[in-house]
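ugh ok fine here u go
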Amino acid sequence: GGQPCALAAGSGSCSLGTLGSGAQVEGEVRVRVSSAIPQVAVRFGASSSTMDPVLPNNGAEAIATLAVSAPLTADLVLALNGPAQTRLGEQFSLSAALRNEGPESVAGVRLVGSLPTALRFISAAGPASCAQTGQELRCDLTGSLSAGEQRIVTLTLAAQNNIGAVTASFAASGNLADPRPINNTVTYALNIGTPG
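structure:
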């Protein structure tokens, strides 16, 4: 420790100064692995300006087997429940159930909806804060969602502008990789009829 070393990508050298007969120097070398590989080998060699009568014992190799951890994942599942039809000018409720199938707890859970111009966000009830910007509705859940836990956010929407069939797409995401992103997205279909 404390010896001056010059390190570069893939190689390096350390100057140890004078080493008396029978003396030894101990040190520690730390390396950082930048890619997921099963093994890493580090080779060392010693040399000096004095002639060495036994060169074969000047080198050594250290081989380490690496345990590469799999990334943490959480399988978020989104389900929607709402009416199949409503009337122009009326308000209705759309429930979004967000469930974490695990295996890890997930934070930063967000529900994003793409609303057509025929639908307008009124309010939300449940463990989330929601706001609409343009045609995007964004709801951020409070706290984390444990494995096996489900939370429901109930949205109140209003039918406006158009009569006929409309669709709105919703997607859920969190701060961990999702092994099954196909169940994160749901399209909601609604038929808007004439006022009663």
